[in-house]
Amino acid sequence: MRAASTSLMSDLPAGPSSAGNGPRWLNAVADRIDQVTAAIGKVVAWLTLATVVICFATVYLRYAMHVGLIWLQELYAWTHVIAITMGAGYVLLTGGFVRVDMVYARLSKRGRAWVDLLGTIFLMAPFLYMMAVAGWSFFRTSLMMNEASQQDTGLPWLWLLKGTLLVFVFAVGLQGVSMLARSLATILSPATDDGRAQDAAGGA
To answer: Which of 13, 56, 75, 104 is 20 to 30 A away from residue 151, measured at CA?
Structure first.
């Protein structure tokens, strides 16, 4: 896992602040948020490993030892869900979400910054708002009834699992703020290179 953690940090895109582009305070904000998101990514790496180990233990006990543990089966579902919701911000940071690059990859650096800025404001923000409203209602209802597993030997406090929807909103929203800051820094910087992205054109 040490190698995996190192890989997480090495995969991070280089921030514009290292090149001196854009207002320094915007780059500083983005850099700090990226550090937080990268740290969350390390936690998610361990959760992913835990999910695999728990899943293996569940299958082994059930089919080799003929022992079925409902709480253990539910536990790896919990760790899987938590890894997805917590890790969404890190996926956004490293560009892991599916993107249609037919147009974006051919834009200038400033043009891509405009797309990121407008996309964050008019697409990501409304989506996260709806997720927050629906997720809060979902979580609050479960909390009020102290919802637990429907199985007698299952895990209690199911409202904790449902609350991870709000974790997703926080993780993605936090990284969205970083995207806004970097985009504004690029747009406001007079030194921004408006040439076309050579690597993006080659990848297309």
So the answer is: 56
Q: What is the mean pLDDT of residues 160-189?
A: 96
> pTM of the full predicted structure?
0.81
Predicted local distance difference test score (pLDDT) of residue 192:
62
Per-residue pLDDT tens for 75-105?
999 999 999 999 999 999 998 887 777 888 8
Q: Is residue 13 part of a domain?
A: no
Cβ atoms of 31 and 23 within 8 Å: the answer is no
96 part of a folded domain: yes
**In-domain check, residue 7:** no
pLDDT computed for residue 12 by the predictor: 52
Burial grade of 23 (CB within 10 A; 0-12, 13-18, 19 or more): middle
**Please, are residues 94 and 13 in contact by the beta-carbon 8 Å criterion?**
yes
